[in-house]
Amino acid sequence: MKMRNAIKSVASKDCFDSVLFRGLFRRRNAAHFRRRRVNPDSLLTRFLILLVAAVCIGIGTGLLLPKISTPLAQVTGQYIATGPVAQVLAALPVDDHPSKQGYDRKSFSYNTIDEDGNGCTVRDDILKRDLTEVAYKSPSRCQIKSGMLQDPYTGKTIRFIRGRQTSSAVQIDHVVALENAWQSGAKQWDVQTKQRYGNDTYNLLAVDGPSNQEKGSASAAYWLPPSRQYRCAYVARQVGVKQKYALTVTTTEKQAISTVLRTCPTQQIPDH
């Protein structure tokens, strides 16, 4: 009895009562069962008491873990990263109160201007750069008719075929999304800077369409590529973009990027 009371003080009362007392110390009055007193000092009873207590404590601990995960990560150094990308990340200004008020995607003029003057849209420029086995729709060698993409986000090989029902299989992603850039400082830019950012090939990748849709405007705090092999390169490019345009990061975004960078301390900021 003393052992039962000691364990009961540790385990959850509801869990202990519902599992232990109903399971061990209550017997239904049935015609084919003989009522029998359970000896609380027997080895079997003690074992079952300990087992139930362990289950109850385990469940309670499991419920508490998500609540302590962030402080635990800080204590264990999960957010501490080293290397060239981490150094650039550490220098980025932090803004934990970003606002998307007034956000206007059209102000970035994505795919509506010929930034490099080659006569092609930036979408076609990116497809030409990132696809292999490229076939062109016209002699101007601008519009891509078909090609193969080794998708960085998923690791899959995707066949691109231009058409209303098929073009969306491969989409062009702003690595640092336009809305995220707006919240990180772009809303203060002049028209020319917004247009340059919206069509900067350094911030553009041809990727798997569904993955791009899933990402939306999320920062690294809320979305990372499904392919773990590409995550270091992905966050490195995000840091490079934010450095190039003097954009801010949030604390959670910075922590998420640092967590990735801990796995690849030699990762470099992309040159182009």
Task: Explain how this protein is built.
The protein is mainly alpha-helical and 272 residues long. It folds into 2 domains: 2-75, no CATH class; 82-261, no CATH class. It is built from 10 helices and 5 strands. The strands form 2 sheets. A 3-stranded antiparallel β-sheet has the order 1-2-3, covered by helices on one side. A two-stranded antiparallel ribbon has the order 4-5. Helix 1 runs parallel beside helix 3, helix 2 packs antiparallel against helix 3 (43-76) and helix 4 packs antiparallel against helix 10 (251-261). Residues 1-36 and 57-76 have low confidence and may be disordered.
Give the topology, please.
Blueprint: H1 2-10, H2 13-24, H3 43-76, H4 84-91, H5 122-130, E1 132-136, E2 144-150, E3 157-161, E4 170-174, H6 178-183, H7 191-198, E5 204-208, H8 209-215, H9 231-244, H10 251-261
Antiparallel strand pairs: 1-2, 2-3, 4-5
Helix pairs in contact: 1-3, 2-3, 4-10
